[in-house]
Each structure stands twice: as C-alpha cells, then as structure tokens.
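User: Before I run my own analysis I want an independent prediction to cross-check against. Here's the chain; please return only the structure tokens and, at the end, one sentence I can use as a sanity check.
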Amino acid sequence: MQIKRNYYCLVAGLQDISIETHKLVFDQLSFKDELKTEVHPADYKLVEKIFLPYDNKNLLNLIEKKDKEFEEKGNFSPAFLEEELKEPSALPNYMTVFINGVKADERKYPDMSLENELITLFYDEMLEHDNEFLREYYELDMNIKNIITALISRKHDVKYENQIIGTTETSEIIRKSHARDFGLSNEYIYVDDLMNIVKLDDIQEREKAIDQLRWDYLEDVTFFEYFTIERVMAFTIKLGI
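Assistant: Structure tokens:
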C-alpha cells in the first residue's frame, strides 16, 4: 500500500497561479530543485518522473548526434548520459531497453522513428507505475498527443499509423479506426474538445486550448488532494504549462 504523506507547510505556501499567470515565484526547474529538500526522497522520485521527457530528448540527441541544446530540466547530466550510453546500468528500465536495442540493432518497435520508439517505451513504463496520478496523467498526455496527431493528419490527408505512440488498446484504436471520433467519445470526455481544438487554424490558439485542457484536468484530479505529493506534482506540471 502506498503511503500518503502530507506537506502542509509546502502546499500552503504555494503561489496561487492560473494559466494566465506570468510572474512566478518559482520557475519549474527552480521548484524542482527546491523540492529535493522539501519532500520525502520516495516522493521526490515521483516528481522526477515529470522531468523524464526532457531526459528523453537529451538521450535522443546524444544517440542521433544532432548537437541540440541540452535540456536543463532533465534529471541526468550530459556526462552521466554519455557514460550510460556505453554500458547502461543506472537509467530507468525503458531507457536501458532502448539503448541496448539500438546498439544491438534489435529495436523493439523498428517500424517507428527512434524518437517515437523511445517515447512509446517511456509511456509503456509510466502506464504501469504504482502511482495512480502518474499513470492517469501520462495516459491523458499520450492520448492527447495521439488524437491530435491523427486528427491533423486526417485533415491534411496524411497517413499517421506509424506516428501514433504507445501500445495500449486506445493507441491501437486510434491507429485503425475510421470513425470521426475514433469511437472514443463515450470513454474519454475530452475527445470532443480535441476535435474542436483541431478546427482552430491558429497554432498558438490550438496549443493554448490544449494547455487549458491539461490544466482543467489537473484541477479536477487534485480537487480532494489537499496536501499530498499529487497536489505538488500537479503544481509542478502547471509551472511547465
């Protein structure tokens, strides 16, 4: 059974923010650093999961040698990642599977791009996580990306099956369904919202609407999580939005 710890002082002191807030007491990276000494080590490991997508980008850039700017929000330093690329031993399991597969030319999802394979392995692991908040948030995150990708591809008559990430039943439905809503509207209340968002021609307006959808979700799922690490994680994600 997962222990629920309460962080009364920490949560009580959090800045009251909305999606329109521009003057922040902490940016996302500074807040992450602050949490190292403010929450239990086991809970901080949960917080680190929120920043793994930045590690994914850094790892991919090292493998593909694209020399892109290093994502400072990641959990792992460039030197650490470079060392792990030689012989992975201390990275999350999905990264180890990815690195070993690439090095041995035995990739798990060879029909995908390297980026989509790494992201798929990441979601595979997160959707099996013990923490319910992380599982459900990353399921939402993956579904949003997949539905938006499919709807925009349909709009421009582009094939998208290999661009869909994840190995869940929902991912497979999105790959294969010809229904307007992929037959998912009854299961996920946000599908109709995403279908309307895709109609927006302005990309910035579209991104803002998606961010608002995520924000509203975080508000809903933490409504009764008054002082828990789940509320802290939701706040951390909001700082990124």
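Sanity check: Residues 188 and 225 are 22 Å apart (CA to CA).
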